[in-house]
Structure formats: structure tokens, C-alpha cells
């Protein structure tokens, strides 16, 4: 009964006391954490397959022709010089992989909880824009992750060539996983740059013409960013990251130019039939005010009603 009454008393615009906000935040955080834990438990059951998927490109680039699972089935020991350090190393590695995969698996749940917590405070058009940004942001992030996954083998082969002749290069498995995770995040977030520019244009903070004027500095900045973001200094890895970002930047600029043109055409046409026109609230000089004609003054009434103002008493 209390819960139903509380739901009935909820403000239609999403307004609620601070205590209710904190209670809702606690509930949504609890659901998100529970979903991550469930996802981590599922990932722990298949963490070897996850490790194989993440490290397979690097394994081939450093001379391993088979995955860890295939080598384990053949009982031939570890692959090449990829190592796991310490007695607790395998267990720590499993926990790290499981938690990371749990966050990814549970992303639909905690993203929905985040949206459900923020959405009541947004206007209708803001909700529409935010849904469009999320729908476009996820494919862009996955595209960046796909690029990083295919850049890593070339990066690993270049880095391994720096090993002095006769030296043994030990590759800790947890460091490899950290490298893969960092590259996926960096590439994925870098592909969100055009989405940020489009958002700034839709809110009116940046025009398409100004974005087009940034093209020289943007190309230089993206190139420098790619040089620091990629683990190697070879031009192939740098261009593989810089070229898609520059292309997405020009696509965002084209969208901004079209959006600005649409705004100018709409302003030139004026407000529609169902839109209110803007009021001119500019104050005028009192001396230049137009006098009220006598015909517009209130008519006088004769007879017994002359005591009132213009023939009207105080009540009327």
C-alpha cells in the first residue's frame, strides 16, 4: 500500500525530495552492481576463452601458432615466452578478466539504470537527442575497438623486433591484457570525437563554418594524439588511428553545415501557424509614445452616474 501510494504521489515532471533521489540512486546502483556481479560470474566460467580472444592477435605476432586452449589440450606447456608470474597470478588474472568482462556484459543493465535516473529531469527534445547520441555512440565505440584489435598485431610485431639479439623477451600475460584493454578504450573513446562536435553544434555552441575552419589544427592534433595513443612509433599504426578520426571529423563538419543551413531556412520562413511569434519587448521613449485617440477613450455616462470616473463607479 505504501509503495503504491508513493508511486501515485510522484510528480509527473520527475521532481522529488532529496531523500527520494538518494533512495532511487541507491536502488539503481544496487541493481547495476548486481548485474555486474552476475556477468562476472558468467565470465569467470569462460575466462580462458576470453583471454584467448583478447590475446590471439598478439600471440600470432610473437610466434605462437596456437591459442592457450589448443596448447593445453595437447599438454605442451605455455606458449612461447608469455608468462604468468607468482602463485596467485592466475587467480588474480581470472578475477581481473571476470570483472572487466562483467562490466561489458552488464552494460545494457547499468546503462539503462543510468538513463532511468537522468531521464525524468530532461525535456522531451533533450530525451530525443540523448537517445540518438547513445544509439550512435555505441557503434562508434565498437568501431574504434575493432580498429584497435586489428592494429595490435602489427604493433606487437614492431615492438618485439626491438629485443636485442640473443635476449629472451618475457611477456607477462596480465600486462598484455592491460595493453589490449587500454588500446580498446583509447580507440573507442577517440571515435566519439565527431559525436561530441555534433552535440555542440545542435546546442548552438559551435557552428559548422567554425568547425570547418579548425581543419588544419584538428588534423595536427589528431596526428599528435595518435602518436601518443598507439604503443608503437611506426606510421602504419598512427595512420590507422588518425585517418578514421579525421574522416569522422569531416563527416561531423558536413552534418553541422547542413544543420546550420536548415536553421537559417527555418528562421527565414518565420514561425509556423502553430507557433507563437516573438514579441517586441524593446522599450520606447515616453515622449514619442503615440497618444490614445479620443474615440478609444471610455464613453461618459450621464445622469446620476456622473460621480464615477468616466461615468463608471468604483465597482465596474
UniProtKB/TrEMBL annotation:
Keyword set, alphabetical order: Cell membrane, Membrane, Protein transport, Translocation, Transmembrane, Transmembrane helix, Transport
Transmembrane segments: 29-47, 93-117, 129-149, 179-200, 212-230, 236-258
Principal subcellular localization: membrane
InterPro entries named among the record's database cross-references: TatC
Topology class, membrane: Multi-pass membrane protein
Biased amino acid composition, Basic and acidic residues: 298-308
Name of one Pfam family that matches: TatC
UniProt record similarity statement: Belongs to the TatC family.
Subunit relationships: The Tat system comprises two distinct complexes: a TatABC complex, containing multiple copies of TatA, TatB and TatC subunits, and a separate TatA complex, containing only TatA subunits. Substrates initially bind to the TatABC complex, which probably triggers association of the separate TatA complex to form the active translocon.
Protein name (record): Sec-independent protein translocase protein TatC
Gene name linked to the record: tatC_1
Amino acid at each position: 500500500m505504501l509503495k503504491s501510494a508513493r508511486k501515485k504521489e510522484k510528480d509527473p515532471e520527475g521532481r522529488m525530495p532529496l531523500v527520494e533521489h538518494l533512495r532511487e540512486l541507491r536502488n539503481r546502483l544496487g541493481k547495476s552492481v548486481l548485474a555486474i556481479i552476475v556477468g562476472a560470474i558468467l565470465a569467470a566460467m569462460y575466462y580462458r576463452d576470453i583471454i584467448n580472444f583478447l590475446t590471439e592477435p598478439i600471440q600470432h605476432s610473437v610466434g605462437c601458432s596456437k591459442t592457450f586452449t589448443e596448447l593445453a589440450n595437447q599438454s605442451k606447456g605455455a606458449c612461447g615466452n608469455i608468462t604468468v608470474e607468482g602463485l596467485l597470478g592466475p587467480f588474480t588474472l581470472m578475477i581481473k578478466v571476470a570483472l572487466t568482462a562483467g562490466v561489458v556484459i552488464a552494460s545494457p543493465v547499468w546503462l539503462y539504470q543510468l538513463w532511468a535516473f537522468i531521464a525524468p529531469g530532461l525535456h522531451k527534445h533533450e530525451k530525443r537527442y540523448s537517445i540518438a547520441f547513445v544509439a550512435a555512440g555505441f557503434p562508434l565505440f565498437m568501431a574504434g575497438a575493432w580498429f584497435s584489435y586489428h592494429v595490435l598485431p602489427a604493433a606487437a610485431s614492431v615492438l618485439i623486433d626491438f629485443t636485442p639479439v640473443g635476449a629472451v623477451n618475457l611477456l607477462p600475460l596480465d600486462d598484455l591484457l592491460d595493453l589490449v584493454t587500454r588500446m580498446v578504450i583509447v580507440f573507442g573513446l577517440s571515435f566519439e570525437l565527431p559525436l561530441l562536435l555534433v552535440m555542440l553544434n545542435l546546442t548552438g555552441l559551435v557552428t559548422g563554418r567554425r568547425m570547418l575552419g579548425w581543419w588544419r589544427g584538428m588534423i595536427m592534433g589528431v596526428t599528435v594524439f595518435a602518436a601518443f595513443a598507439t604503443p608503437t612509433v611506426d606510421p602504419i599504426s598512427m595512420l590507422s588511428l588518425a585517418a578514421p578520426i579525421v574522416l569522422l571529423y569531416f563527416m561531423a563538419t558536413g552534418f553541422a553545415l547542413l544543420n546550420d543551413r536548415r536553421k537559417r531556412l527555418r528562421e527565414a520562413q518565420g514561425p509556423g501557424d502553430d507557433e507563437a511569434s516573438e514579441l517586441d519587448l524593446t522599450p520606447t521613449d515616453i515622449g514619442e509614445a503615440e497618444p490614445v485617440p479620443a474615440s478609444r477613450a471610455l464613453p461618459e455616462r450621464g445622469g446620476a452616474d456622473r460621480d464615477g470616473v468616466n461615468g463608471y463607479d468604483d465597482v465596474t
